[in-house]
Amino acid sequence: MELLYDERIDGEIADVDKSALMAAILAVAPQLTLLDREEDLRPFECDGLSAYRVLPMLVAMPATLAEVEALMRVCYEHAVPVVTRGAGTGLSGGALPLEKGVLLVMSRFNKILSVDADARIARVQPGVRNLAISEAAAPYGLYYAPDPSSQIACSIGGNVAENAGGVHCLKYGLTVHNVLSVDIVTIEGERMTLGGESLDTPGYDLLALFMGSEGMLGVITEVTVRLLPKPEVAKVLMACFDDVELAGKAVGDIIAAGCIPGGLEMMDNLAIRAAEDFIHAGYPVEAQAILLCELDGVEADVQADCERVRDLLEAAGATQIQLARDDAERQLFWAGRKAAFPAVGRMSPDYYCIDGTIPRRELPRVLKGINDLSAHYGLRVANVFHAGDGNLHPLILFDANQPGELEATEALGGKILELCVEAGGSITGEHGVGREKLNQMCTQFAADEITLFHAVKSAFDERRLLNPGKNIPTLARCAEFGAMHVHHGELPHPELPRF
Amino acid sequence: MTHLQDQQPAYTAPGEAGPDAPVAPATGSDDSEALCEQVTRAHAERATLRIVGGDTKAFYGRRVDTTQSLSTTGHHGIVHYDPVELVATARAGTRLRDLERALADNGQRLAFEPPYFGDDATVGGMVAAGLSGPRRPWVGAVRDFVLGVRVITSEGKLLRFGGEVMKNVAGYDLSRLMVGAQGTLGVLTEVSFKVLPLPQASACLRLELPLPDALDRLAAWGREPLPITGAAHDGEALHIRLEGGEGSVSATRQRLGGELDEPLFWSQLRELRLPFFDGAFANAADRTLWRLSLPALARTPALDGDWLIDWGGAQRWLQSPTGSGAEGHHDIAIREAAIAAGGHATRITPVDDENSPFTPLPPVLAKYHRQLKQRLDPQGIFNPGRLYADW
Ligand SMILES: Cc1cc2nc3c(=O)[nH]c(=O)nc-3n(C[C@H](O)[C@H](O)[C@H](O)COP(=O)(O)OP(=O)(O)OC[C@H]3O[C@@H](n4cnc5c(N)ncnc54)[C@H](O)[C@@H]3O)c2cc1C
Questions:
Q1: Per-residue pLDDT tens over the stretch A150-174
Q2: pLDDT (0 to 100) of residue B107
Q3: Which of A364, A458, B133, B235 is deepest in the core (most CB within 10 A)?
Q4: Mean predicted lDDT score pLDDT of chain A
Q5: Which CATH class is domain B4-197?
Q6: Tens of pLDDT along B22-51?
Q7: CB burial class (10 A; 0-12, 13-18, 19+) of residue B283?
Q8: Domain with residues A233-342, CATH architecture
Q9: ipTM reported for the complex, 2 dp
Q10: At what angle do helices A18-28 and A65-77 cross, to 10 degrees?
């Protein structure tokens, strides 16, 4: 299976003597927790993409900054690769260990260092859970806006490393829009701060560069986030459609009317039925699509916006429009959406989540394409969609115990992503490339672009020790697996240099 | 009250035309091949290039001594603009005012309110300079609205990063890295922006208050979801701009009090054309203009000179008596005071010397800046020394 590290095309990794390495680490960081027995390593063998598992050579669980620095220095000297792990909820194998590498687990960095209500910022360690930040800010009427569905579990360090999004990103932005600064320990064990409490810093915007860099450029050891005041009111409209295309068009109509909802989500029939069966959110199981549209702000504006949006939805052909009666029903409507992945998981032994983005206008064509592909591969696909910002999450239902189904699922997933690229979109909106989408990177980017990505990487990690074999494919991999390259209408180059 | 749906979008093809129809007819002129050729030649000849857009922000940064200049103004025009998608893509040499006019015709805008500093300001220069206007703390900076770029590398290759979609985490975010890089990492040829609808209502207020009281009030208001999109203090009064729905703007206006003020204040502030700035530009010999970027609630550093506060306290303009020598004691004191307050200081009044107007970087950061420049532009073709003397 091409998902596991392949030294032939992903680059060679030197062998090291594990006990010598452990001794060298403990010599400079005697208190550092190191795990190396198989039963201790087992819990760390995969992240949220659990079909792929590798036991790391060693797990390190530092509790202090000095331990992180010491560990990095030793690994750098010994040329041992380091894979950083937050909460391990990533869906692209970004935290998949290497059997010849150290897995650096940041879960002990779990303190909220300060919440400054007047400045509306929170300083936290990277292992703090996303939701814990909003909980700590709640007494001040503040919250941290990006809300990935995994927010009860995922860490803020992992959010930064993936530039995570959530259902409220259309209005409130992604992680990149809500983080003021991060502290980094480099592969050479140096400390640096990117960004700051001022709104800009001199030099390049390295803070933006590190957002979504998947642990490839440095280890995040502290994060300062911006907090927002909680909106006075939030209301949710649920609109049902008997045609997915009409629902897609309604999304465009709302935005064209100058309205930016707090959240604008769409689910198709299979996803609706799965969620309803699981959460009993009151979704209409016969609808072909539902839209959830949250409008938030001050009372007067929200009232006016609700009426406007209701009119637009009606004009767009909604068969039924329902305003959540109270906050409890609003939470329930969202609970169904936020539990969509596990809900679909209950319908099938396994499911595989895809994360493509497209310009919204392409939605009808892409959904039709997904339907056709689903029929061709004989695998059911449920669609969950951050409709406001064009981020599709088709969920492929399969059974890994049926011979060939995992492979067919991967092939179908790859085709869906290629469809997104053709439509002018991207192979990943929020889950990252990780190990999973390396081959599709060759679809989205030309060889020269990939070469420039490697140039950026080498500016921070010349020896390729931070999370090697993730995020950016080698040109050798693209030559071997790169699908027809549709970017700029160019074809793949068979004569690509290999390294 | 006009809503967008009443207006005829100028650039969108009819929705019925199907997904393959061009969303916006390209206008202007595509000069990218010639630009690539010039860079390729410069690379081969080991020449250096000063990248020039409208040349309106040349004052911002170190002077660049190069063998040639590369002008982007022949490469202009809006490539795509689809109001429904909230995305506009323009060539780098497009005049900023042409882009903003097209957006305004469709009831939309660049929400980060970029300063022009001259009618000829280009889209590429605006992004390369990375300057945002008074709305920045509430709405975001240039980089927050850049979705994708096309860029010419030092080897003369035209590459694309990011795109026209709202979310994209494939590969490193090179689009945002280009913002504020002052053309030292590549020549921007095209930029895609997220654009936003114009607010339904707005109001400008003036409240006579001393600065410390103003900062206290801003801190308290900041904890509520008020539609504030501008807060500046000119030494006498706090100026507030409200933008949002009709209901929230009128309710907030009642609550905050003060007198109604002219919207002109905000465009003059953005362009550094308020009377406060005249003093600095008219007496450049003995007055120096500094920009201090600080945590919004920081105490005003004890420095000689006059202050004008923008960004709710996060951007502070200081007109100080010019120190002796190129980077005299006074200048060093200003930088140190800014760092001590948790931010940094930029000298805006140009001085003909070797020193960068920007605050020097701490050693580890400086190392990685140099390495990044070295990897992306090994020969140092683009705007050498524009940000800092040694690269
Ligand atoms: C049910 C479910 C729903 C989800 N919903 C969403 C969603 O709505 N939106 C969304 O964006 N994502 C979603 N995800 C994906 C995932 O939760 C996010 O990508 C999250 O940001 C990962 O955080 P983590 O702490 O689990 O990171 P991990 O999985 O541990 O790591 C992810 C990546 O970050 C790197 N990393 C982690 N910590 C650090 C650090 N301190 N320094 C440097 N690099 C680091 C790792 O090396 C790896 O490359 C979902 C996942 C699940 C399982």
A1: 999 999 999 999 999 998 999 999 9
A2: 95
A3: B133
A4: 93
A5: alpha beta
A6: 444 557 999 999 999 999 999 999 999 999
A7: middle
A8: 2-Layer Sandwich (3.30)
A9: 0.94
A10: 140
- Length of chain B counted residue by residue: 391
Q: Per-residue confidence at B326, pLDDT binned at 50, 70, 90?
A: low
Class of domain A112-229: alpha beta
- Residues B188 and B92 sit within 8 Å (Cβ to Cβ): yes
* Token duo for residue B113: 């309110």
Question: A348-422 sits in which CATH class?
Answer: alpha beta
Distances in whole angstroms, Cα of residue A182 to Cα of each of A12, A111, A302, B213: 31, 15, 35, 31
Q: Taking 80 as the threshold, does the pLDDT of residue B13 lie above it?
A: no
Phi/psi at A351 (nearest 5 deg)?
A: -145, 160
Give the three-class secondary structure for A303: helix
Q: Any idea what DSSP says for residue B85?
A: G
Distance A90 CA to ligand 1 centre (A): 4
Q: Cβ of A208 and B143 within 8 Å?
A: yes
Residue in A184, A221, A298 to test binding to B, most B beta-carbons within 10 Å: A298
Q: How many residues are listed for chain A in this entry? A: 499
Phi, psi of A67 (to 5 degrees): -70, -40
Among A172, A305, A390, A167, residue whose Cα is nearest residue B139: A172
B342: amino acid identity, one letter = G
Tokens of A108: 């002990």
The verdict on pTM exceeding 0.80 is: yes
The reply to whether domains B201-270 and B275-349 share a CATH topology is yes
The better pLDDT of the pair B299, A487 is held by: B299
Pick among 3.40.50, 2.40.50, 3.40.1390, 3.30.70: CATH of B275-349: 3.30.70
Q: Cβ distance A22 to A68 under 8 Å?
A: no
SS3 label, residue A355? coil
Contact B304, B328 (CB under 8 A): no
CATH number of B201-270: 3.30.70.2560
DSSP conformational letter for A80 = -
Residues B133, B122: Cα–Cα separation, whole Å: 16
Q: Is the CB of A159 under 6 A from ligand 1?
A: yes
Contact A411, A483 (CB under 8 A): no
Are residues A212 and A163 in contact, defined by beta-carbon separation less than 8 angstroms? Answer: yes
| pLDDT at A494 exceeding the cut of 50 | no
- What pLDDT, on the 0 to 100 scale, is given for residue A483? 52
Residue A258 to residue B3, Cβ atoms within 8 A: yes
Q: Give the closest-approach CA distance of A274 to chain B in angstroms.
A: 26
Q: Which of A44, A61, A108, A150 to mutate to test the pocket of ligand 1 (most atoms within 8 A of CB)?
A: A150
Fold designation for A7-105 = 3.30.43
State phi, psi for A302 to the nearest 5 degrees: -65, -40
* Cα–Cα distance, B367 to B364 (Å, whole number): 5
* A426/B222 CB distance under 8 A: no
pLDDT digits (tens, 9 = 90+) for A180-218: 999 999 999 999 999 999 999 999 999 999 999 999 999
Q: At what angle do helices A405-422 and A363-377 cross, to 10 degrees?
A: 160
Instruction: Give the whole-angstrom CA distance, residue A254 versus residue A274.
Output: 27
Judge residue B149's burial from the number of C-beta atoms within 10 Å of its C-beta, 0-12 exposed, 13-18 middle, 19 or more buried. Answer: buried
Tell me the H-state helices in A154-219.
Answer: 156-162, 169-172, 175-178, 206-210
Residue A385, both tokens: 């969609």
| Confidence check: pLDDT of A79 > 90 | yes
Q: Cα separation of A109 and A157, whole Å?
A: 10
Helix-strand-coil percent breakdown of chain B, rounded to 5?
Answer: 30, 25, 45
Which residues have C-beta within 8 Å of that of residue A298, sequence separation ≥ 6?
A231, A232, A233, B225, B227, B245, B247, B248, B251
